[in-house]
TrEMBL record:
Residue numbers spanned by region Disordered: 154-184
Pfam families: DPRP
GO terms of molecular function: lyase activity
UniProt keyword Lyase, yes or no: yes
Keyword Nucleotide-binding annotated: no
Record's compositionally biased regions (Basic and acidic residues): 154-165
Alphabetical keyword list: Lyase
Protein name, as recorded: Cryptochrome/photolyase family protein
Record organism: Nakamurella alba
Domain of life: Bacteria
Length: 494
């Protein structure tokens, strides 16, 4: 009979080849407990693994073991495996091959482009920008193309997708996102997680709560369908906006099933393109979403390997601050700043907020306060249900913290309260004022913006895109008082 297939917890869909094979699934105590993961992230992973085992029935062996090596020894037959998604795990399975516990390592699945083809595309390019990669992907895959031209004549309609939230509306008032129904397997997972927490085997962060995300192929397809038919038409315009009363807005929540390996990114963009071609979705929404999937998602995956193991330690601005406990453990109630409190509460309660609160609230705060980029990257990986080792270095160290000397982004994503005020409805109900930088009502994001700019002014002096903000800093009235005020504020919750 063919060699059994070992599936990791992010390799659970049909594009990980299990045809006619026995399948090994492992719950490794070490993998679950070695970092403070979000409680709901652990739940999703375990629930997905157990559901997959139940689906496969007799063909599946599900082992609960101290670690993967022990599980393979117990299983007693060599296995084939698709290359895992982290450098460490990749090295590890190759060691297991040397020990004859693994027979063959197949290429990674769940991404549209192989690492070799990416290397070939990079060639001797000095910079690897997202725009060029995305265009290459569209052309290569023939997605949203008219012959050799992009549909509609432009590669990106991003400019149409930056609208603030609708004025005065507490929500976008859209059809609700797909929600799964929990079952006995979820109940079992919950009991195990409670017990392991009591026994000190795991130390999760965040709250438990009803499961928001798919864990089976069937659920993942239902979530995809629901999004494309009912919510995608509204995705584009307010993609970058935030509403306190509508944390999901028109976002898809599909990063979770894609990163669990339940959905293939190509089937996701095919469904989106079909909806566009059938006239059910505007191009700005279809293109904006396709760009996230075959553009951004694949780009950060490839960069994880391309930039190499030292990338996550890049620290261009010399930021060495630890993550304060209130931030790391999601103590939203300790925070008065309404935007930051609400976003931390979202992560605490769901392990998920969309990309703008991640970038412009959490990442912006960390950049302003000088948190160490590698520690922040680890935290994002653990606290978010879609966070994996490969996801966060480019997103956090590169894009959000600008700690890679500009390899990914041409300027830091540093902003004051005015940006948050324009793009959200947070400031109206806040004890602070976004326009004030001094005194009791000084917005900590606004004051923090100037303090951070001052701290990084040396590093940013040669950056053409930062010339204007640096000039503004030099002519800012009362700058010394702002700096003193922010030094006094220290690392406590704002
Ligand atoms: Fe956030 Fe400042 Fe607005 Fe308050 S005033 S919600 S702290 S940006």
């Amino acid at each position: 009979s063919p060699t059994p297939r070992w599936l990791f917890g992010d390799q659970l869909g049909p594009h990980f080849d299990t045809r006619g094979r026995d399948v090994l699934l492992v719950e490794s105590v070490h993998a679950l407990g070695h970092k403070p993961f979000h409680r709901q992230k652990l739940h999703l992973t375990l629930s997905a693994i157990r559901h997959r085992a139940a689906e496969l029935g007799d063909r599946a062996t599900l082992l609960h073991a101290a670690n993967y090596r022990e599980a393979l020894r117990e299983f007693g037959r060599p296995v084939d495996v698709h290359a895992p998604t982290s450098r460490q795990a990749d090295r590890f399975v190759r060691t297991l091959a040397d020990e004859s516990l693994v027979d063959r390592v197949d290429p990674a699945a769940g991404f549209s482009l192989s690492r070799n083809d990416f290397r070939e595309w990079v060639g001797d390019r000095r910079t690897v920008r997202m725009e060029a990669f995305y265009r290459f992907q569209r052309e290569r895959l023939g997605i949203l193309m008219d012959g050799d031209r992009p549909v509609g004549g432009r590669w990106s309609l991003d400019e149409e997708n930056r609208e603030p939230p609708p004025k005065g509306a507490p929500t976008l008032d859209l059809p609700a996102p797909y929600r799964p129904r929990e079952d006995d397997i979820d109940e079992g997972v919950r009991e195990d997680l409670d017990r392991w927490t009591r026994d000190g085997i795991i130390d999760p962060i965040g709250n438990d709560g009803p499961r928001w995300f798919p864990v089976t192929r069937r659920e993942a397809l239902a979530a995809l369908h629901r999004f494309v038919e009912h919510r995608l038409p509204h995705f584009g315009p307010h993609e970058d906006a935030m509403l306190a009363g509508d944390p999901v807005m028109a976002h898809s929540l599909l990063s979770v099933p894609m990163n669990l390996g339940l959905l293939d990114p190509l089937e996701v963009v095919a469904a989106v393109e079909d909806a566009y071609r059938a006239g059910r979705v505007e191009l700005a929404s279809a293109e904006g979403f396709v760009r996230q999937v075959i553009g951004w998602r694949e780009y950060v995956w490839q960069l994880y390997w391309h930039f190499g193991p030292d990338y996550r330690h890049r620290n261009e601005h010399g930021a060495t601050g630890p993550l304060p406990r209130w931030f790391a453990r999601l103590d939203a109630d300790a925070v008065q700043a309404r935007c930051l409190s609400d976003v931390l509460a979202g992560v605490r309660d769901h392990g998920w907020v969309h990309h703008i609160p991640r970038l412009m609230v959490l990442g912006n705060w960390a950049l302003q306060r000088g948190f160490r980029p590698s520690a922040l990257s680890d935290w994002f990986r653990c606290a978010f249900v879609d966070g994996y080792e490969w996801v966060m270095p480019a997103n956090v160290v590169g894009m959000s913290q600008h700690a890679d000397g500009g390899a990914m982004a041409t300027k830091p994503y540093l902003s004051g309260g005015a940006y948050i005020h324009r793009m959200s409805d947070y400031c109206g109900g806040c004890v602070y004022r976004p326009s004030e930088r001094l005194g009791e009502k000084a917005c900590p994001f606004t004051a923090g913006y100037w303090a951070a700019l001052d701290r990084m002014s040396g590093d940013l002096a040669g950056n053409a895109r930062m010339r204007r903000p640096l000039q503004n800093l030099r002519s800012l009235a009362g700058v010394e008082q702002v700096l003193a005020q922010e030094r006094d504020r220290g690392a406590g919750p704002p």
